């Protein structure tokens, strides 16, 4: 009872903090910049990360297993992964992930605590197939890879917005880079129009650079997760690959981002081509992550759920 109450409190504290951050972001985007959103979001996501960490540890203690056995727990871990990426970006002095990581955290955590998942929010005993040391290795690698790939794909989507949209001054406020502004202000012989073009081109380069780095990291985690999953499958089911729906979509996801990395490192292709592939990968990840859970079929259907009847 105590652990359940503590988990409930930590869940709502972290969700409330991110909600306030997102509200301030939209207020600054639509009205005026009264509060520095970058500094606020960076500082606010730290207690969010600590609350989510405490939530996972608490659930681990009173459930008796690592909290990655169902859809609810994986969503909370996905939220934790988004906040972890934000913390890493904060220490790397990269501010262009702030809006993406905060928005992703509130989306995943909001869905995890919704009434749709009430039936699986209570911890249950692990099924025999999940009672393995590989649970932590395989599932954690997959979830962290999803978080990194989703963030990188959203950066690519933002890149496409700046490439194809002529007037994006208000949207620029969400992705302002102080180093770009300082670099521009040091140039005194540049007109206002050329200054805007310079700022936009530098911003596009920054988005392309960081989306490539984040997706590359996510691809590494995804590869590790698939390999560890194959080893675990051989121990549990006697086969490294069973052409299970989850395995098929994981392989498709891997192929999509392998194509992205090939196009991105090939100088013969413009940057928007790789960004389009990354946006496609964004959709494929959600199909891979939720598809099996919605259908409830295959060997990976442990976290399946049904919509509550009205």
From TrEMBL:
Gene Ontology process terms (BP): cytochrome complex assembly
Gene transcribed to yield this protein: ccsA
Protein name stated in the entry: Cytochrome c biogenesis protein CcsA
Similarity section: Belongs to the CcmF/CycK/Ccl1/NrfE/CcsA family.
Membrane topology classification: Multi-pass membrane protein
GO cellular component terms, semicolon-separated: plasma membrane; thylakoid membrane
Main localization (coarse): membrane
Domain Cytochrome c assembly protein: 68-300
Taxonomic lineage of the native organism: Eukaryota, Viridiplantae, Streptophyta, Embryophyta, Tracheophyta
Species whose genome carries this gene: Lobelia organensis
UniProt subunit comment: May interact with Ccs1.
